[in-house]
Structure formats: C-alpha cells, structure tokens
Amino acid sequence: MTRSSCAPAVLRFVAFTGVILLVAGVCTAAPPDTLRVLCAAEQPGPIRQAVAAFVGQEKTLVEVTTSNKVDAPDVYATKGPFDVIIAPCNRTAKKWQDGALVVAGSERSLYWKRMSIVLPLGNPKGILQPADVSRPDLRIAVQTLCVGRVDETLANLKPNVVLQAQDGALLVRLLRQGDLDAIITFDTAVADYADSLVVMRLPRSVCGDLGETPVPIYLAANAPHPEEAKKLIDFLSASPQARKVYLSHALTLSDGVKEAKSYDTGAGKRFDKVYRDLCRQVVDDYKVTRGRALDIGCGPGQMTLELARITQLQVVGLDIEPEVIEIAKRKASQAGLAERASFVAADAHALPFPDNCFDLVISRGTWPFLRDHVLAFREVYRVMKPGAVAFIGGGRGRYTTEEEWASLGERDPRKQWFRAADAQEEGTFFPFPLESYDVLMAKVGIAPRQYKVFLEGGQWVEIHK
Predict the structure, then answer these.
(1) What would the pLDDT profile of 174-230 be if each residue is shown by its tens digit?
(2) Most buried among 87, 208, 219, 326, by the most CB within 10 A?
(3) What is the model's pTM?
(4) What contacts 24+ positions apart, CB below 8 Å, involve 312-317?
(5) Do both 236 and 317 map to the same domain?
C-alpha cells in the first residue's frame, strides 16, 4: 500500500454521512489505497482517536465508517469492501463470523465493556454495593443496550425499573436532574461523562459473563489491503498510544477475572510486608485510629485489612476493578474483619461518597494509572473531613529497609512515575506520569502549608485539611 502523496499538514477530520476520513495531509478525498474501517462500537470516539494516532505515525490514510450494530452487515454489503471490522461485542461478532464477513482467527481485543451502575456525583442515595439498587425506594433506568442482560442476570431490579431507553444522553440528563437515582448500562456508553458521574462496574458474580465482554477487532474478509490492515489492528489492540487513549476515556483493557487473580497471587503477595509496614507507619505518624478511612486503589485489600486490623477505624477499600473487590471481600470475611472493612468498585475520579466523610485517606501505587491527577486529588480533598490527613504516593515506607526493597527487584518510583524526560524506564507502562507534587497541589488548590512531600523510600505527599 502506498503512502499519501499529500504534503504533511495538521491531521484533519472530514465528516460526511456517518463517515470520518482521517487524513495525514491536505487531501479531502480518499484515494483508492485508503484503509477502510467499519466500526460498530457504541462509542466510536476513543477508536477514532486511536486511529488518528496511527495515521499520524504511519502517514497512511484511514477512513472510518461508523454504523449501528444492527445494520452493520447491510453497510458491509452496500459500502464495502472494508479492511478492518470492529464489533460492539462478542455476540454481534458471532453473527459476523457466521456470515463470513471476517477472517477466522484474526480477532483481537481493543478494550472491555462492563455492565455498570451509573450514579450522580456525590451519590446522594448512598448506593455502594450491587445489592443496593434493589432497594424499593429507588428509580432505576436501563439503557436498552443492556435489556437482555438485565433480564437474564439482574431480575431483582425489575420492580425498580421506571424507564428503558436507548438514548444515553437523555438518561444522563434525567439522572442529573434528579428524576432518576441510577442507570444500568455499559461503562462504554457513558465514557464521555466518566468524570462527571459515578460509575460502579459490576462483577461477574452479579451480572455473569454477559456483563463483561471485549470489543473485538477483525481483519475483514476480502480486505483490499490485508498487510496494512494487520498493522492497524496491531496498533489499535496493543500499542501504548492506543491503550492510553482508551484509558483516558475510562475504559478497561483486560479481563477483570484474570487481572484480579494475577494481582492477588503476584504483586499482592510480593508487597505484603511493604503494605503492613506502611500501615504501621501511617498509624504511628498520624495517630488516626478511630473514625473512617479510605484506601484508594486497594486491590485485593492488603492495606485496607491491615489498617482495620491494627486500629478501630471503619476502613473502605476502593478499586475500579470489581473482580478484585470480590477477592478483597472474601479476604475480609476470612480475617473476621467484614464488619469494619468494606469495599467498593468505583473510580477515583468520581468517588461515591459525600463531602467531608473520611478522617484518613491512604493510597499506594495507584496514581500513575489515573488519567486526571488534578481531578483525583480534588476528589480526595473533597471527601476528607476538616482536620483529616491523606498519605498518598508510591514506593516503600521508612519501616521497610532498602535491603528488603531491593530484594523485591523494585526501583525508586521517581524513575518511573514522573514526567522528566530522563526518568522514564524502558519497558514500563505507566500511562499517566505525574507532574511534581508541588505543581499538582498548586493546580488542585491546596496551599503549601497544607501539604508536605516525602522522598524517603519513594515519592509521598501528606495532605492536611
């Protein structure tokens, strides 16, 4: 396939009749060697951005035709041929496979879509667990993208369902107006609102395999440019540039069950002593032993449970991954701590808690995976009570020796977490390196007298409200 012969210029998006033409140059019409993509994903915005990154890197013309998943086979027949096909989920992809529209064995995954409970900011109804949405006082809407899945897996919600609609923007507007208490939909359907809504993804134990599915990409049958199409598929499914685009839209990149088990049996066990040492350090330094504490990015709950074990605090562990929250809940029950250690599957950018409700906030190792550090720190500060303290960062605490840390094969997080050009380690994937804590605190609006940066054993910031 040939490159565009147009002189380099700013990347442009030319829209016409449901088609987005991504042009690396100044052309306004697609030449015959343009790669053609049929995209039936419900929210094509992140895919368009990832395709634009490919265009910028490869200087190859790509035309993206968006389509409703129902009419996609007709679009293929009338507007084809295509080089690449993106399905909304495995169910629809099965129909495409049966119709011989895609090449067998060419499937890759872009990201995963999860059935979720969507709530207004501040979570005024206090919905923290999947079982809470069956309370009789709630008004629930179901986006019709999920109707079949709700019927099969969440039948106990039916008495509370007051509206079913396909229009996601309408449902979000009603939620914000206070006419609804929650929406059941896929997280992909509200990706454009991720930072202004509380999104709680549901585990498979609640919604079954129907509630968690990859968004697959295929090489199209009879693709005019198969070799270039394979390059695009590789880029969209595996490149750091594409992965960062998806994460910036609050999308998840992997099978939650596999990811949770991997962390629990891998890093979770390796860092067990580090977590225990940090909890002891926090208690010794700040003397917060009663009230409420929040552990952001809790994973399987090691720090959450240790903090509950050595204090009288009511500790809440929060993680975006619902499957790892299931593991943490089991560990709490096994340790006899379920009454004082609870867990919530939610996003750190929109915490499902009211203002001024925690005496202590802790977080280790989470922040370079958060897409908006300023927003996340503002959320931390919002939920802190006056007089509360937060201890956030990465690395080891001072109770873990350098020898113990070195035995784990770990390095100073300053060489991996932060944006300095000479500080990024090759082979690591921290999608959102931080600015310095001083810069971040200034952007968040936290005064210098309210925070202190610690470099002992890593990179830590202590915040007082």
Answers:
(1) 999 999 999 999 898 888 887 889 999 998 888 777 778 889 999 999 999 999 999
(2) 87
(3) 0.87
(4) 312/340, 313/288, 313/289, 313/340, 313/359, 313/360, 314/340, 314/342, 315/340, 315/341, 315/342, 316/292, 316/341, 316/342, 316/343, 316/344, 316/353, 316/358, 317/341, 317/342, 317/343, 317/344
(5) no
